[in-house]
Amino acid sequence: MGFTSASVIETLALSPRLRRISLRVDDPETLAIPSDSDSAVGVYFDPTAPQEGRTYSVRHHDGDRIDLDIVLHTGGRGSSWAQTVSVGERVGLDHSRAWYRPPPGIAWQLLVTDLAGLPATARIVEEMSPAVATTVIVEAIDHHDLDYLPVRPGVTVVPSLGTGNGLAPSRLADLAREVGLPARGYCWFGGEAAASREVRKYLRGQGWTVDRYDITGYWRFDSETWDAKFALVSDEVVRVYQRAIAAGKGDKVASEEFDDALERHGL
Fold first, then answer.
1. Which residues contact 192 (CB under 8 A, 6 or more apart)?
2. Is the separation of the CB atoms in 14 and 20 below 8 Å?
3. Whether this model's pTM surpasses 0.85
4. Mean pLDDT of successive 10-residue stretches along the chain, which has 267 residues
């Protein structure tokens, strides 16, 4: 999971809000992209000075080629790059990772996402076992976004059009509460951080243990204001995470305790 460079080999408009950027990776072994369905990489727009970057889901991965399906929006360094990048341009790649790890033998799963998590959701649906019944809750803008999801037997899509995504209050947590949770199941979330917290709190309130969900905040609404507030308490809340790791609680539990500390500080 180290740094390498890559070249843009193709760009393709998938919908009004999604653009595919295909890359040829110089050293795929160093990058070491996980095989998990929601694998992602950090993309650094200047490969000679890898400071500013964004993390994107890997929609397809074959040898030294990766396809990144990027959600377009107004403003933002990553969205501007995706809309203007040309074949032959170079980027840096690093920090490959993944979160989707359902327990073995599950028969049911819940996928909760907004536009930012749509590419990962699509890949999970595409690659999952047909024996796993799946409910997908998705906040989208219109039918173009829903059409991007693969159609698979046993998959139920619960759409919420026009909510969340920085345009209106999110309904993801409310919709998750309306889904009947089975005795055994799994939940994956990829979307806005505040909504992720509400979904995780709901699952914990239903008695679900940390091995039964992977909840990831892909982005934050009004991130500039949040960053300014976080800077005032960062040392304190980071120590919460560090103490949990030192106590052997593992990254997932430590991350939850870190998020709980953020909430106590109004973040």
1. 114, 116, 164, 165, 166, 170, 172, 217, 218, 219, 220, 221
2. yes
3. yes
4. 92 94 96 94 86 91 96 85 94 94 94 97 95 96 93 95 94 95 92 95 93 94 91 94 94 91 92
Q: What is the largest CA-CA distance in the chain?
A: 51
Q: Residue 222: what pLDDT? A: 87
The answer to whether the CB of 144 falls within 8 A of the CB of 15 is yes
**Residues 139 and 170: beta-carbon distance below 8 Å:** yes
Query: Side-chain half-sphere of 46: how many Cα atoms within 13 Å?
Result: 6
pLDDT computed for residue 237 by the predictor: 93
